[in-house]
C-alpha cells in the first residue's frame, strides 16, 4: 500500500473515532438548564466557574445557564418544568410554597439577606433612628420595601415620621443621587456598589445585621425534580461547591467569567462586589459550613418574617420550603 495513502487513511480513521467518542461522551451527559434570577452577577460566579472549569461536565452534566427576569418569573418557569433548576430569593420560594406552587429550595447563596437602607454619605444617616423625619424613596410591593417595615419595627423607628415617596425601579437610584429622597431600601451589593460609583454612600444598614434576616438568593427546583432527579441534584451541588472554591481562591476568575456572561456589567464594579460577597454567603448559623448549606433556624426565621409582614398563610414549616438532602452527608 502507498505509505502516504495509508497515513492519510489512518489519520481519517483516528479523527473519525475521536469525533465519535466525543459525540458519545457528550450524549452521555445529562442536559439540565439553570435559570438565573436576573442577569449574571457576582453572586452567580460559582456556577460560571463550575461550567468553565469542567466541574459540571466531570459530574456528567451538560449545564446551560440562562438569564432571568426576577425571582417570580424564574419560580414560574421552574415550577412549570421549563427549566430544571432555578435561582431566586428563598423568601420568594417560601411565599410560592405557601400559595401551593410546588417548588423547594435546595441550597442558599446569599444567605445573609443583602436588603439594606442606602443613603448618601452626605446625608448624616448613620443609624436607624436617623431615618425619622426623612424621605424614603420606595418601589411599592418590592421585597426590600416590605422588609424595611420589619427593620423599622425591630429597631424602634417611628415610621409615621417618614415621608414615603413612590418611585419606580428605573428612577429609585436617580432620586437618591439627585437628592429627591434621603434614603432607599435596596441590596447593599450590587445596588449600593453602583450608587457609590455615582456618589459616595454611607455604609449600608443591612437589615440582617440589625435583627431582620431573611434568606436571599438560593437554588431551588420543582418538587417533582426533587423527587425524581436527586442524583443529578447531588452532582450539581457538589460541582457548584467546587466552582465557588475556585472563585474564592481567585476572585479575578469570577469577575472575568461573570463579565463574559454579562458584557454590560462593569469589571470594576464586579471586583468590588466580589470582595464584599463573602459577608453575605453565610449567616451566624452557617458560619464554617460548606458553601450553600442552609440552617433550619434561618429557614424558620424567614418564614416567621414572611408570615408577619408578607401575609404568608400559617402552617408553612421549614421542611416545606427547603431540603438539605442533596448535600454531602458530612454537612
Keywords summarizing the entry:
331 residues; alpha/beta; 5-stranded mixed sheet; 15 helices; 10 strands
Give a verbal description of the structure.
It is a single chain. The chain has 331 residues and is of the alpha/beta class. It is 47% helix and 15% strand. The chain contains 15 helices and ten strands. The strands form two sheets. The protein has a five-stranded mixed β-sheet with strand order 2-1-3-10-4, with helices on both faces. β6, α6 and β7 form a beta-alpha-beta unit. α10 crosses α11 and α11 packs across α12. The protein starts with a helix and ends in a 10-residue tail after the last helix. About 6% of the residues have low confidence.
Shape designation: globular
Please mark out the parts with pLDDT under 50 across 5 or more consecutive residues, or reply none: 6-24
Number of separate strands: 10
Radius of gyration: 23 Å
Strand content: 5-15%
User: Helical residue percent?
Assistant: 40-55%
Characterize the largest beta sheet: strand count, sense, and whether it forms a barrel: 5 strands, mixed
Distance between the termini: 63 Å
Which structural class should the secondary elements be placed in? alpha/beta
- Main β-sheet, spatial strand arrangement: 2-1-3-10-4
Helix count equals: 15
What is the string of SSEs from the N terminus onward? HEHHEHEHEEEHEHEHEEHHHHHHH
Overall average residue pLDDT: 90
Amino acid at each position: 500500500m502507498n505509505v502516504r495513502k495509508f497515513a492519510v487513511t489512518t489519520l481519517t480513521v483516528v479523527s473519525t473515532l475521536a469525533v465519535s467518542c466525543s459525540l458519545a461522551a457528550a450524549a452521555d451527559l445529562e442536559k439540565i438548564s439553570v435559570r438565573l434570577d436576573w442577569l449574571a452577577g457576582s453572586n452567580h460566579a460559582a456556577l460560571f466557574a463550575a461550567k468553565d472549569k469542567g466541574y459540571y461536565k466531570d459530574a456528567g452534566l451538560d449545564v446551560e445557564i440562562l438569564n432571568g427576569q426576577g425571582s417570580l418569573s424564574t419560580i414560574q418557569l421552574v415550577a412549570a418544568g421549563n427549566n430544571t433548576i432555578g435561582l431566586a430569593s428563598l423568601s420568594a420560594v417560601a411565599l410560592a410554597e405557601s400559595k401551593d406552587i410546588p417548588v423547594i429550595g435546595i441550597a442558599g447563596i446569599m444567605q445573609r439577606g443583602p436588603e439594606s437602607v442606602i443613603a448618601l454619605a452626605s446625608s448624616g444617616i448613620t443609624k436607624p433612628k436617623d431615618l425619622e423625619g426623612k424621605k424614603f424613596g420606595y418601589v411599592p410591593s418590592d421585597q426590600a420595601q416590605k422588609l424595611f417595615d420589619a427593620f423599622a419595627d425591630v429597631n424602634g423607628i417611628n415610621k409615621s415620621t417618614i415621608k414615603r415617596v413612590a418611585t419606580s425601579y428605573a428612577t429609585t437610584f436617580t432620586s437618591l443621587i439627585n437628592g429627591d429622597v434621603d434614603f432607599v431600601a435596596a441590596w447593599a451589593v450590587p445596588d449600593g456598589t453602583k450608587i457609590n460609583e455615582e456618589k459616595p454612600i454611607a455604609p449600608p444598614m443591612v437589615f440582617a445585621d440589625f435583627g431582620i434576616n431573611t434568606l436571599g438568593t438560593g437554588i431551588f427546583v420543582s418538587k417533582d425534580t426533587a423527587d425524581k432527579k436527586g442524583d443529578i441534584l447531588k452532582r450539581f451541588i457538589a460541582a457548584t461547591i467546587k466552582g465557588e472554591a475556585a472563585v474564592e481562591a481567585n476572585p479575578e476568575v469570577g469577575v472575568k467569567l461573570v463579565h463574559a456572561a454579562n458584557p454590560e456589567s462593569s469589571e470594576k464594579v464586579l471586583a468590588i462586589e466580589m470582595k464584599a460577597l463573602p459577608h453575605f454567603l453565610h449567616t451566624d448559623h452557617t458560619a464554617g459550613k460548606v458553601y450553600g448549606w442552609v440552617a433550619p433556624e434561618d429557614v424558620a426565621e424567614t418564614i416567621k418574617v414572611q408570615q408577619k409582614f408578607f401575609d404568608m398563610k400559617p402552617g408553612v414549616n421549614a421542611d416545606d420550603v427547603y431540603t438539605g438532602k442533596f448535600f454531602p452527608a458530612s454537612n
